[in-house]
């Protein structure tokens, strides 16, 4: 049976209403003013702005409009699967299964053509194999240290993170898609840990 | 004096850190679950998703990638100028002056080329003269009624808004850039007011 224009629009609105729940998913990173933790919706917005402003740090072959679309969509699965702080412990295979089921349900609210198109953008981001996906992933890892540096430690303090752990868990991932941003972050992180009173 | 790469990147980061403050600007619209008011950062994210999902309601000549950029940037001036609920009273000329000064300061944190480019996108949105700007403005007006319908009244209840006021202040603006979305919203708003117990 052919989809009516009204049924199509109702599916689109149902998806957009469901997406509103991303505003209630709390991340491990604090706002720059250390006042509260950020949620995944405002984080996603901030990342699209990172992409707009830092695109001169993207490697050749990056399509910045596609990067922005990836960043708009990248955390929607957290509505069902939750956020996993990068310095927390979690079962990677289990998380991937949860996120796949979430993508099935959430993108499945859309009309089929949009479901397939947006799901493909999310899958490309997740696979991290194209230049655009690698740059998007790098920005997703680069923003939290920038917030932590502003807020005086943020999630590094909460999770008792060492400089070595940041290099291993965050640095390697930033460096893949945005090496010049990691050079900058590494230097500022070194200054931060050098000047921090020992705990 | 030529800008060094480090000075350029520091300007870009200073702008992105300043933009973080948009997460603390509270709007007049509630989340769909009526739990709290939304902030302008998460609202901006939600609108970029509206653009991605509802682009089949855009008129010919709309560049959806540009619409998304407009929506990422459109509320940044609220960091200095604050949010103005559409059913509140405010001096339009005074608001425009405040927002212009805010744009000078906030976009002025960026390197000159990015300052000029992003400022131009924001100016195009504000002027609402191009098809892309009109569609972006329409989405900005279309999302709050969708939230209010979900939350059982939301800002309409808070501001004691009538159906006629919605038509005048919101409907006319949605209809300019997205007439089919206004047809849909108008019908759902009529149902809502017809079924609401009189107060």
Automatic annotation (TrEMBL), chains A, B:
Transmembrane stretches, by residue range?
none
Task: Pinpoint the HD domain residues.
Answer: 19-182
The domain of life is Bacteria
MF terms (GO), sorted A to Z: hydrolase activity
Keywords in alphabetical order = Hydrolase, Metal-binding
Pfam families assigned to the protein according to its UniProt record, in alphabetical order = HD_3 (PF13023)
Q: Which InterPro entries does the record associate with it?
A: HD_domain, YfbR/HDDC2
The answer to whether the entry has keyword Repressor is no
Q: What is this protein called?
A: HD family hydrolase
Name the source organism: Sulfitobacter sediminis
